[in-house]
Structure to design on (272 residues):
């Protein structure tokens, strides 16, 4: 028996000849030993050489070029290329595994893809958690070594919360309302600002309370429902797809009361 000009002897292969067949047992078999072999058969009548293709089957090689795209706070998409070698038998499916880096546990299977597909949408991620991903090809011999995406994936939307608005101030007020103005944040976080949240608290209070939500990108609003005589501070948060951003600096405190007293006329004419 020979392959590529190399002869195989008793150390490499054991051949048992029966009346109607010959059984070949190769030793130390590896996948790369597949190929065309030349077999020489002889008897008293002469000899013949027969070329036979020998397919040595194994698990596939690892999927290649694994990448993660379309990352957001709850999902991402894995893509990969077929293994360079299917192991000599068709690939049946792909197994996708995920590792949650916030736990000490290992890898967990999160889904499968058909043999004809080279992508998978991984869902049910947790916002701001870090993950790693890998893919294995499967044939009838078993699972391949994993193809690993080498980077850590942070589950978050591709945009951030907006920056904090600037120059928040009360421009007018009365006993039951206050007019607030501010300037746009320097950064919209990568997504257009869709509105603002105005918060207030009593000057010596601890908790900020949502006073009003306004839509659009206007930079002024009136807060109603104030209690006469109480002292208030206000602040503003910008909102985009990611949610509310950092609050502005608090306004100077104001007292909910009329800013101007009642007008009165005084008769200064001399009495007659």
């Amino acid at each position: 028996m020979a392959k590529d000009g190399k002869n195989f002897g008793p150390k490499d292969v054991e051949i048992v000849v029966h009346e109607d067949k010959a059984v070949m047992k190769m030793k130390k078999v590896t996948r790369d030993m597949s190929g065309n072999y030349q077999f020489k058969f002889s008897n008293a009548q002469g000899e013949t050489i027969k070329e036979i293709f020998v397919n040595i089957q194994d698990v596939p090689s690892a999927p290649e070029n694994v990448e993660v795209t379309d990352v957001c706070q709850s999902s991402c998409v894995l893509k990969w290329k077929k293994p360079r070698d299917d192991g000599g038998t068709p690939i049946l499916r792909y197994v996708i595994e995920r590792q949650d880096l916030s736990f000490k546990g290992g890898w967990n299977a999160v889904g499968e893809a058909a043999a004809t597909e080279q992508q998978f949408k991984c869902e049910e991620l947790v916002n701001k958690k870090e993950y790693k991903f890998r893919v294995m090809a499967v044939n009838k011999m078993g699972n391949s070594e994993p193809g690993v995406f080498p980077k850590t994936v942070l589950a978050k939307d591709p945009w951030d919360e907006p920056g904090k608005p600037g120059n928040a101030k009360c421009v007018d007020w009365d006993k039951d309302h206050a007019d607030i103005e501010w300037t746009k944040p320097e950064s919209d976080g990568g997504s257009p600002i869709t509105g603002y949240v105005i918060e207030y608290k009593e000057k010596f209070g601890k908790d900020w309370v949502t006073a009003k939500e306004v839509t659009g990108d206007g930079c002024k609003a009136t807060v109603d429902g104030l209690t006469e005589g109480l002292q208030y501070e206000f602040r503003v948060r910008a909102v985009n797809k990611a949610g509310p951003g950092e609050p502005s600096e608090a306004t100077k405190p104001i007292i909910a009361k009329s800013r101007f007293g009642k007008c009165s006329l005084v008769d200064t004419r001399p009495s007659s």
Summary: DSSP finds no helices and 23 strands in the chain. The chain has a mean pLDDT of 90. Residues 64-154 form a domain with the Immunoglobulin-like fold (CATH 2.60.40.10).
